[in-house]
Write a structure and sequence with these properties.
Largest sheet: 4 strands, antiparallel
Number of domains: 1
Helix content: 25-40%
Number of helices: 7
Strand order of the largest sheet: 2-3-1-4
CATH class: Alpha Beta
CATH superfamily: Nucleoside diphosphate kinase-like domain
Mean pLDDT: 97
Low-confidence stretches: none
Order of helices and strands: EHHEHHEHHEH
CATH architecture: 2-Layer Sandwich
Shape: globular
CATH topology: Alpha-Beta Plaits
Bound molecules: uridine-5'-diphosphate, magnesium ion
Length: 139
């Protein structure tokens, strides 16, 4: 398994607010190489499948609604220790708890609308990357 890659989404709020460029700047400055990237729009079925692990949680319906309300930027990123380093770069799920300078501290509105996704393990990074990209879209 490839262990130096992670998967991210710049969520609909980031696209709506015009924050794609600023967030990509932070990602580049932190030393991540872009392996794959696209603007895409998740269907309800996509979001329910992507977040299936959360389907019993009280926020699930709201999460699916949010993630499908507009386009996202999906990307695979490469760097040594990518999963852990990217989680550090984005900060805590709740922006009120996110460290200064993190992407969520800077650009997230709330625990629900929190600007970006970052994979939580190497295994999930591979699964989530393959959910959005075919092998021939990865460079
Ligand atoms: N979420 C939410 N309410 C919560 C926790 C999470 O709406 O109380 C949303 C939020 O958009 C979060 C996503 O569900 O990013 C997935 O939750 P997870 O706990 O996996 O957080 P993450 O890994 O994104 O930090
Ligand atoms: Mg998660």
């Amino acid at each position: 398994m490839i262990t130096n890659r992670t998967f991210t989404m710049l969520k609909p709020d980031s696209v709506e607010k015009g924050n794609i460029g600023a967030i990509l700047e932070k990602i580049n400055a932190a030393g991540f190489r872009i392996v794959a990237m696209k603007l895409t729009h998740m269907t309800k079925r996509d979001a329910e499948a992507f977040y299936a692990i959360h389907n019993e949680r009280p926020f699930f319906d709201e999460l699916v609604e949010y993630m499908t309300r507009g386009p996202i930027v999906a990307a695979i990123l490469e760097k040594d220790n990518a999963v852990e380093d990217f989680r550090a770069l984005i900060g805590a799920t709740n922006p009120e708890e996110a460290a200064e300078g993190t992407i969520r501290k800077l650009y997230a509105a709330s625990i629900g609308e929190n600007a970006v996704h970052g994979s939580d393990s190497n295994e999930n990074a591979a699964i989530e990357g393959a959910f959005h990209f075919s092998g021939r879209e990865m460079f």
